[in-house]
Automatic annotation (TrEMBL):
Increases the formation of ribosomal termination complexes and stimulates activities of RF-1 and RF-2. It binds guanine nucleotides and has strong preference for UGA stop codons. It may interact directly with the ribosome. The stimulation of RF-1 and RF-2 is significantly reduced by GTP and GDP, but not by GMP. Belongs to the TRAFAC class translation factor GTPase superfamily. Classic translation factor GTPase family. PrfC subfamily. It comes from the Bacteria. Pfam families: EF-G_D2 (PF22042), GTP_EFTU (PF00009), RF3_C (PF16658). This is Peptide chain release factor 3. Residues 6-274 form the Tr-type G domain. Keywords: Cytoplasm, GTP-binding, Nucleotide-binding, Protein biosynthesis.
Length: 523
């Protein structure tokens, strides 16, 4: 069993929208022989659409679920790629998915450099010091200077860069990459993006063949490399595994070039399923006994299956169809005969799965984000937090008599983890918080659909939320009386500070050094 688990490499892609995540995913599946020809995986955004168009949203989510978890064999390993919703469907789930992987691939649009969303996702990876592999994409376009790109990653993301491949030219002059560790040159040819290409490569930077093929660019490359190798970091596995250094690959996802080298490096270096901390002890992935935790709950994913699916990351042991597992929070044994996987565009029933794999459990409201399942042991995994919302709306009921139903709906939906509800102390208002804007539409629709509540959302001047922690009871009481105007309870009755502005938050933090303003909250 532990060998099965040792083969797993479970990761997700972090990137800013339009950097090329969908495109590179498609090439990875092509290389993993999951699809015959690239172009068959539908993109999640077939064009710009109004976020309030529910049908469109539903359709898109229907598509996106088939790619929620992708598994493919590669070089003797079994790769699990977890989708991180990125466009309109961006949400807290995107963040939490990163707590369920062992490594991440960072895709950067090389003409733009490090962008906002990447910075934020990288912060989330930092919570667990997740190892990061970097792919500098779109080399077939005019890009920023590669040395500057690496400097930017080092400075903005605070991680050392170790170039593994180095680009030869860019845009129309893009010729290929030099593989620093292999001392090989791989040549790029256009128009081959949809197939697995035959390798066109030569050995040795000093190979005269190189001068024949690319002329004066050959000497430029040698000169540049001397500079680069002198100034950059060498790849060190140890530092990579600690999340301190990232191996950097260059290429074009669209042209399916440079991706193979990246994937080879990735499966070679990325960690096998890691152990997990629980409240009792650290659980190793090679333990025989089954255990896992829930990191995402998705509802209405596919109009044909109107149920909710709870996504579980298996931490140890093996899932077998029909097995019994303990739902620790409820202290109840459940029998699971129909866990699902999402392969090949359809939900398929699953016979077995191992540590590192993701399985889907049918959920009729009893499973929550952060729940632990075991073979019987009473332990609870940690490290599956809520993240502070970044967008806020005031919820206004159309029918004031439905207030109770509204609150119940909002709290139940917040247990699924994509949105959060706050009840300010100083008013009867309800505030909805989310990380992605589409979630407001999802909530409005589901409140109507599942709770028969009609509501609208209004803008509200809240900049961010922070969960309040303080060991000193007296201090906390003082704080509560002073900060009353901006305090609220979240769906789980946790004390939360809703800061009207960033400046206000900073001031409060300065004024109350013994109060913790937490950006994440553990379940
Ligand atoms: P996502 O939003 O990160 O999933 O990005 P997509 O994969 O949808 O790519 C966004 C756009 O960039 C699409 O029009 C892609 O065709 C294009 N794109 C992706 N990779 C490349 C590349 O290597 N070169 C060029 N020129 N365009 C690319």
């Amino acid at each position: 069993m532990s060998t099965e688990s040792n083969l797993r490499r479970t990761f997700a892609i972090i990137s800013h929208p339009d950097a090329g995540k969908t495109t590179i995913t498609e090439k990875l599946l092509l290389l993993g022989q999951k699809i015959q020809e690239a172009g068959t995986v539908k993109g999640k955004k077939s064009g710009k659409h109004a976020t309030s168009d529910w049908m469109e949203m539903e359709k898109q989510r229907g598509i996106s679920v088939t790619t929620s978890v992708m598994q493919f064999p590669y070089n003797g390993r079994i790769v699990n790629l977890l989708d991180t919703p990125g466009h309109e469907d961006f949400s807290e789930d995107t963040y939490r998915t990163l707590t369920a992987v062992d490594s991440a691939l960072m895709v950067i649009d090389s003409s733009k450099g490090v962008e906002d969303r990447t910075i934020k996702l990288m912060e989330v990876c930092r919570l667990r010091d997740t190892p990061i592999v970097t792919f500098m994409n779109k080399l077939d376009r005019d890009i920023k200077d590669p040395i500057e790109l690496m400097d930017e990653v080092e400075e903005v993301l605070n991680i050392q860069c170790a170039p593994i491949t180095w680009p030869i030219g860019m845009g129309k002059q893009f010729k290929g990459v030099y593989h620093i560790l292999e001392d090989k040159i791989y040549f790029y040819s256009t128009g081959q993006g949809h197939i697995i290409q035959k390798e066109d490569c030569i050995e040795g930077l000093d190979n005269p063949e190189l001068d024949k093929r690319i002329g004066a660019m050959a000497q430029d490359l040698r000169d540049e490399l001397e500079l680069v190798l002198g100034a950059s970091h060498e790849f060190e596995l140890e530092a990579f595994l600690k999340g301190q250094l990232t191996p950097v690959f260059f290429g074009t996802a669209l042209g399916n070039f440079g991706v193979t080298q990246m994937l080879n490096g990735f499966v070679n270096w990325a960690p096998a399923p890691l152990s997990r901390q629980s409240n009792e002890r650290e659980v190793e992935s090679n333990e025989d006994q089954f255990s896992g935790f829930i990191f995402k709950i998705q509802a209405n994913m596919d109009p044909a299956h109107r149920d909710r699916i709870a996504f579980m990351r298996i931490v140890s042991g093996k899932y077998e169809k029909g097995m019994k597992m303990k739902h620790v929070r409820l202290n109840r044994d459940i029998q699971v005969s129909n866990a699902v996987t999402f392969l090949a565009g359809d939900r398929a029933n699953l016979e077995t799965a191992y540590a590192g794999d993701i399985i889907g459990l049918h959920n009729h409201g009893t499973i929550q984000i952060g729940d632990t399942f075991t073979a019987g042991e009473m332990l609870k995994f940690s490290g599956i937090p809520n993240f502070a919302p970044e967008l806020f709306r005031r919820v206004r009921l159309k029918d004031p008599l439905k207030n109770k139903a509204l609150l119940k709906g909002l709290i139940q939906l917040s247990e699924e983890g994509a949105t959060q509800v706050f009840r300010p102390f100083h008013s009867n208002e309800l505030i909805l918080g989310a990380v992605g804007v589409l979630q407001f539409d999802v909530v409005a629709h589901r409140l109507q659909d599942e709770y028969k509540v009609n509501c609208i959302f209004e803008p509200v001047s809240i900049h961010t939320a922070r969960w309040i922690m303080c060991d000193d009871e007296k201090m906390l009481e003082q704080f509560k009386s002073k900060a009353d105007d901006n305090l609220s309870l979240d769906g789980g009755d946790n004390l939360t500070y809703l800061a009207p502005t960033r400046v206000n938050l900073n001031l409060m933090q300065e004024r109350w050094p013994d109060i913790q303003f937490c950006e994440t909250r553990e379940h």
